[in-house]
Amino acid sequence: MATTSYPLLQTINDPADVRKLSRADLKVLATELRGFVLESVSQTGGHLSSNLGTVELTVALHHVFNTPEDRLVWDVGHQTYPHKILTGRRDRMHTLRQLGGISGFPQRAESPYDTFGTAHSSTSISAALGMAMAAKRKGEDRYAVAIIGDGAMTAGMAFEALNNGGVTDANLLVILNDNDMSISPPVGALNRYLAQLMSGQFYAAAKNVGKTVLRPVPPLLELAKRFEQQAKGMVVPATLFEKFGFNYIGPIDGHDLDSLIPTLENIKGLKGPQFLHVVTKKGQGYKLAEADPVAYHGPGKFDPAVGLVKSTAAPKQTFTQVFGQWLCDMAAQDGRLVGITPAMREGSGMVEFEKRFPDRYYDVGIAEQHAVTFAAGMACEGVKPVVAIYSTFLQRAYDQLIHDVALQNLPVVFALDRAGLVGADGATHAGAYDIPFVRCIPNMSMACPADERECRQLLSTAFEQDHPVAVRYPRGSGAGVAPLASLEGLPFGKGEIRRERLATDDLAAPRVAILAFGTLLYPALQAAESLNATVVNMRWAKPLDVDLLLQVASQHDALVTVEEGAIMGGAGSAVTEALNVAGITLPVLQLGLPDVFIEHGDPAKLLALQGLDADGIQQAITRRFFTTAEG
C-alpha cells in the first residue's frame, strides 16, 4: 500500500512518538490516520465504521497515557485498527485478517500494546479492573482503561464489573464510547437512558459553567467543584454510574481532541474508579459509512471513491439466508413461533422476519444468557421460541442451556450460525465446540445439515420436536443445493447412505465407510470416488443413527468420521462410544478440528490446512488404511 499521502503518520512507530506531538499535529495525525484506515480496509476488507469512529479517541489515549505501562482494554476489539496502526503495525495492515497476518482483534501474542485479547462483547471492564487491582497489589502506579461501547454496556457482565469496581479504590477508567449503534440497533432501557442523558445539553452546559467562569480565579476552584455538583444534581439526579461508585464525567465530543485530551489529562491525575462518557459517530469522516454504518460495519474489498457496489451476479444463497426465509415461512404457518436474537439481527438473517412479524421478534440486546432463559420462559407458556445465535456466542449461555432449557426439557430451537471455522474473524469466533458441548447435555439434540436444502428441512424437524434441538450450519454458502419450498422435515435422528462402495475382486483392499456430519459430506464424496468408499450422510450428531451405524459397521473393515468441529468429544467420539456399547471392535479414523486454536484466514485454505478438504480426507484415509494394506 502506498503511504505517500500520510507524511506524519509514517513517522509514528510507537505511541512514544504520539506523545511528542503538539495539539495541532495531533489533529493532522488524526486526519491522516482516518484516511489510512479507510484505504487499508478498502484493500483487505474488515471492520470499518467502528474504526473510523474511534480515531480521535485512540490518538488521545496514546497521547495522554503511558502505554503499554498504562493498560488499554478495548471491548469487542473490532475498533482497534487505529490502535494497531499507532503501535507499530502500520506496515502489516495489508495482512489484516489473512492467514499469517495480523488479527482483526487485540491479541496478546501479537503486541505488548494488546494487553487483553477481546472479540466477544462486554469483557473489558472486568479485565481492566483485574489489571488495576493487580497493579495495586504489586505497588505499581498505573492506570487501567476499559473502552466499551453503548451496545456492549447492556450486557450483564459489564454491570457485574461496574458493581465490583465501584467499591474499590482501583485506578480504573471506564470510557463509554457512545455511538448509539452496536452491530444491530441498540435496544433496552439503558440505551434509552443514555440517549436522554446525552440529549440533555443543559446538563453539559451547566456543568461547564463553573469551570469556564471560575477557573481563572484559583481561590474559587473549590467553589467551582461545588457548583458542578449542584448542576449535576439539578439536571441529572444521581446518575446511574455514580450510584455504582464511579466519578462520572461527560458526555463530551469524542471527535474533539481539544475536549478529549484535557479531560483525559485531568482524569489521569485522579484516583479511584472514573467513568468518562464520550459521544462518537460510527463511520466518522467517510460520508458513505456515516450514512449507512451497518453496511460498512464489516465490508469486503471496495473502492472508497465509489463505495460498496452490489454484485449483478446471482450469488449462491447463504445458510443464514436459508434460515431467515425458513423463519418467515414457518412463522406464517405456525402462530406459536417467535424469533429471539441477542443483538445479531443482520448477522443471523432476521431483518425480513422483523419487518413481517414485528410483534414476534425479540432483540434482547447483547445478553446471550438472558436470551436463552427468556426463551425458556416463553416455552413454559406454550410459545415456540427459535433462538438465532452464533455458535461461538452460545458458549456464553452454557449454564442457561443446561439449567434453564435442557433440565426442564423445554422445546426451544437453537439456530447455530457460524458453526465450524469462520475465516477472517479467527479463533474467537470459530464455532468449533458446539457438537461436544451440546451432545453431552441430556434432552438436547444436534442436527448437522449437509447443504442448504437439508438446513431448511432439519430446521423444520427441530421445530416439530417437544424438546430442545440445535441445528448447526456454517457461515456463507455450501454446496448450492436449493431448498425446497415446503416446510416438511426429515426423519428425526436418521441418516442416509449417500454413496455405496462398489464390489471389486481386490480382496486386499479395505472396505472403508466415511461417516460425514454436516457440510463436509461433499468433500467426503469427492474423496470416496478414488478410494471406492461408502459415504454416509449422518445428519444428526445426537441422537446418533445407531441402527444405520451398526449396519454400516457390519459391512466394512474401517470407519472414518468427518466433521467441521472439535474432534475431542465430537461426533466421531459419539460413533466410537456407540461401537463400544455394541461390543464392536473396528478401526475408526476421526477427522475434524484438532485441539488447538486455529487462526484467521481464508476458510477454504484453513480447512485444507486441517486436512478437511477432499484431498486431505483422501490422503488421511490412504495413510491410515490403504498404505498398510498395500505394504
Automatic annotation (TrEMBL):
It comes from the Bacteria. GO terms for biological process: isopentenyl diphosphate biosynthetic process, methylerythritol 4-phosphate pathway; terpenoid biosynthetic process; thiamine biosynthetic process. Thiamine diphosphate binds at residues 78, 119-121, 151-152, 179, 286, 368. Its EC number is 2.2.1.7. CDD domains: TPP_DXS, TPP_PYR_DXS_TK_like. It catalyses: D-glyceraldehyde 3-phosphate + pyruvate + H(+) = 1-deoxy-D-xylulose 5-phosphate + CO2. InterPro entries: Dxylulose-5-P_synthase (IPR005477), THDP-binding (IPR029061), Transketo_C/PFOR_II (IPR009014), Transketolase-like_Pyr-bd (IPR005475), Transketolase_BS (IPR020826), Transketolase_C (IPR033248), Transketolase_CS (IPR049557). GO terms for cellular component: cytosol. Pathway: Metabolic intermediate biosynthesis; 1-deoxy-D-xylulose 5-phosphate biosynthesis; 1-deoxy-D-xylulose 5-phosphate from D-glyceraldehyde 3-phosphate and pyruvate: step 1/1. Residues 317-481 form the Transketolase-like pyrimidine-binding domain. SUPFAM superfamilies: Thiamin diphosphate-binding fold (THDP-binding) (SSF52518), TK C-terminal domain-like (SSF52922). Mg(2+) binds at residues 150, 179. Pfam families: DXP_synthase_N, Transket_pyr, Transketolase_C. GO terms for molecular function: 1-deoxy-D-xylulose-5-phosphate synthase activity; magnesium ion binding; thiamine pyrophosphate binding. Belongs to the transketolase family. DXPS subfamily. Catalyzes the acyloin condensation reaction between C atoms 2 and 3 of pyruvate and glyceraldehyde 3-phosphate to yield 1-deoxy-D-xylulose-5-phosphate (DXP). HAMAP family: DXP_synth (MF_00315). This is 1-deoxy-D-xylulose-5-phosphate synthase. It comes from Acidovorax temperans.
